Amino acid sequence: MLRHLIALTALAATPAAQDPGPDQSMFIDATATALPAAAQLHALDGVFVDVDRDGDLDLALAVEGDVNRLYINDGTGRFAWRQGVFGTKAHDTEHVRTADFNGDGWPDLVFVAEDDKTHQLFLGSPGGRFTDASDRLPGRSEGNGLAVGDVDRDGLPDIVIGSSGAAKGDGQELLWLNDKARPGHFVDATATHLPAVRDDTQDVALIDIDGDGDLDMLVANERPPSRLLLNDGQGRFADASRRLDLKVPMETREAHVFDANGDGRLDILLLNLTSNAGKWDKDPQARLLVNDGRRFADETADRLPPNRFSSWGGEVVDFDHDGHPDLLVGAIDVPGFEPMQVRAYRNDGAGRFRDVTATAMPATTKGRAWSMDVGDVNRDGIDDVFIGGWGTQARLLLGRR
Residues 324-344: what's their mean pLDDT? Predict the structure, then answer.
């Protein structure tokens, strides 16, 4: 949910794009002219980051079953694939995050992998070049969730990996603290800093959820229940999951933490599956847990549109520019794993969301949508959105007034 603040340039810098038609969509689908064509790629996640420090946002992709990719922005929001940046070996990569881990002023990238358990760390350098420093990561795991942040408040970003191997006797979340004596190297603090719990985690969010100045942890689990861990200020976490009002078993794929109703407290959105592309199992309804200051109450029935599709990813973005966070929600029909159109939910300003897909989204946004990211790629002062895809073309949507 980081927002990138980029200097404004003329609207003429916007790349040519597919016209969404007369419906006055909130986005222009620029995919055909702005992203490399890769209709069969499993681009499960992407992060906008200015890797070459030229003032525009580039795009790093986490690719399942292939080599991870770096797309370089030409300054107007058109991206070109710089091949070979992350080596030549394919991995089962699920997510990517960015931070300056070694404190040299250049953005670095960390990737997390599932089946082959090969997590990767790449250190940035001038010109948007990267050095493989994966040997600095202290272990392997069946990883899915990934988050970075300074959990022990020493000024250096740390790494949390959510593990998904509970059925195989694994599944312990991992906490790797950045070594202050050697920034960009990591120490495994899992045993001393995290509860010993076997999870099937798909997402991790690090955010100060209780307002005490340190980063807490929301763990979104494929096998119920999801969990809330509170930081003691030194990077040690204690379970506070009793504060989550989890009314039904959920196969949660992604979690977002934001102030939905404008009361100054952070709320929780859980995006869910009925199953991982199998049979109908659990209710895939997205869930909104509202923070009342003591607990997170499930107010989904009053605040979110009903859904029966499964969702592998979404994003929080104020697409109507009214100062209130709206939602984009990926949709896939399960059973069947059939592509569907990405949904747009507009916030009424009080945390109640209405499905405005028909008027807000270009009709081209149909696919197996995965994780998303937000940033101003064409420097017009308006948020744009990357939408990952599983075996369907990843998409770039340009925001417009």
Answer: 98
- Check residue 166 and give its pLDDT: 61
* pTM of structure: 0.93
Q: Are 355 and 344 in contact, with CB atoms under 8 Å apart? A: yes
The pair phi, psi for residue 394, each rounded to 5°, is -60, 155
Residue 336 contacts by C-beta under 8 Å, 6 or more apart in sequence? none
pLDDT tens sequence across 201-226: 999 999 999 999 999 999 999 999 99
Nearest 5°: phi and psi at 396?
A: -120, 120
Residues 6+ apart with CB under 8 A from 191: none
- Reported as a single tens digit per residue, the pLDDT across 127-153 is 999 999 999 999 999 999 999 999 999
Written as six digits, the tokens of 303 are: 């605040």
Burial of 224 (0-12, 13-18, 19+ CB in 10 A): middle
Please count the CA atoms within 13 angstroms of the CA of 156 that sit on its side-chain side: 19
227 vs 240: CA distance, rounded Å: 7
Question: In terms of residues, how long is the chain?
Answer: 401
Does the CA dihedral 63-342-18-320 come out positive or negative? Answer: negative
Distance of CA 336 to the CA centre of its chain: 24
CB-hemisphere CA count at 13 Å for 300?
19
Distance CA 170, CA 182 (A): 29
pLDDT tens sequence across 4-35: 333 323 323 333 334 334 446 999 999 999 99
Give the type of residue at 167: A
DSSP category for residue 321? -
- Closest by CA position to 255, among listed 390, 371, 149, 351: 371
Cβ neighbours around 210 below 10 Å, total: 17
- Are the CB atoms for 60 and 47 separated by under 8 Å? yes
Mean pLDDT across 159-183: 89
CB-based contacts of 264: which residues, under 8 Å, 6+ apart?
none
Residues 196, 208: Cα–Cα separation, whole Å: 22
CB 44 within 8 A of CB 93: yes
Strand 227-231 relative to strand 237-239, pairing: antiparallel
Task: Identify the H or E element spanning 190.
Answer: helix 190-193
Residue 168: pLDDT over 90: no
Tell me the C-alpha distance between 348 and 174, whole Å.
38
